[in-house]
Amino acid sequence: MLDEKNITRAAARLAISQPALSAQLARLRDIFGDELLTPAASGKGMVLTPRGAELRE
Question: Between the chain's N and C termini, which has fewer beta carbons within 10 Å?
Answer without folding.
Answer: C
